[in-house]
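ugh finaly. both done.
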Amino acid sequence: MRNSAGVVVVTGAGGMGSAIVRRIGTCSTVILADVDARLLETEVGSLTATGYDVVGHLVDVSHKEAVDALAADAIARGPVTAVVHTSGLSPVQAPIDAILRVDLLGTALVLDAFGAVIGPGGAGVFVSSMAGTLASLDPGFELRLATTPTEQLLELPELAAGAIADADTAYVVAKRANQVRVRAASLAWGGRGARVNTLSPGIIATPMGASELEGPSGAIMRAMIERSGTGRIGTPEDIAAAVEFLVSRRAGFITGTDLLVDGGVVASLQYPPT
């Protein structure tokens, strides 16, 4: 039986994804999607055992056919009321090409597929990063990242092999692209009576965050946390709370924007104490 509250889709089963399901998945049918079959089975089992109506869906977000199949599965189960895209790779997890395919192209594919099926009154939240907020890209490049047709996105000369120096740069470009691309897409989503925004986390206590803290930039990241206004690392629940607000009616006049949820790290970098 379909739940009256409709269908909620969350991509990314670990860390943030599970916390988000627990926060916004009550009274809805939830499709939890991930590329990792074992992780997906574990999280679906845990959520189901605690009373959530959750089905798992294997998906590689870098493949259009797989993303389109996910959207078709969702709409077949009822009206799609919320889409939260958390899937992504960090610089310590993947090389340049994988980051561009998953973080950049994957986000664009999910944005397109669910922009075509989201129901009136629905909302989307696409997880970017504070790295995108800190990016300083050429305005013309940003415009191309925002508006180039998805099937041509990875053909941009600025993304060609050798044009990006390292995985860190690829990550910054991808996350800034998420922010500007969602802003541009908010007009089409609005035509369906729906809203869409990005959410940019800072350093969060997830497996991805742990990998970054253990990587080459770990000491720098710890110093950033110490200098921030909150002085602590973020939790998946912090992100889930922000997502809950953005998909709710209380955020009914908010679309095409980015919510920075970083505990004050960006502020400490832009305005360091003297």
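ok and the 2nd:
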Amino acid sequence: MIHISKMTGKLEGFQAISTNTTTNEYCQKKYNEQNPNVICTFCYSHEMLNTFRKNMAPALQRNTDLLNSKVLHPDALPVINSAFFRFNAHGELALDKKEATINLENYVNIALKNPHCTFSLWSKRFDVIKPFFDKHDKPKNLILIYSTPLTNHILKKIPQYFDKTFNTVVETDYIEQQNCTGQKCKDCLLCYKKDTTSIIVEKVKTYGKKKLKQKLNKQ
């Protein structure tokens, strides 16, 4: 059975279907590079799942194993009793493109099963998204958000099939353009409605990485 998480903090009031960031080879590679110019270096999910949220990891791993292994029968997909829902509050589509495509198809099928709900999926995997939707219709209730890998690089050209871009910047830069800072998602919903701005900008959360923060600020 797919595990649905009840979110806290910034995502308080939301539910999500997530996967295990700490075993995702794509996430591991990007996180371990510790490049201050790449947002994966400051991954909140890695920090949480390796420390005070370790107890979440087994449930997220079960989701990873289930969602990446096969296209699930519609009866195995959950009914979502929410207006807005998040895919991958933790995690990313797998490094293996076959597994990533299966995961994506399962998310699409969940959206199709729940047309009353709007689903948002953040991903950096344009190399998976484009080939899939070249061959499949995109559900009207699925919002795809391209999570820009580079910090302090606001991407205004939205990649094909995506609806928005999510960008991170140094807290002292692009202050007037920061529209996803200091608020909870349920009070904002920029990422969960198509008729809002398509360019989302948030300041980088460095999670105590002082040396990396200093290096980032000098770029």
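summary for the 2nd one i guess: The first strand starts at residue 5 and ends at 6.
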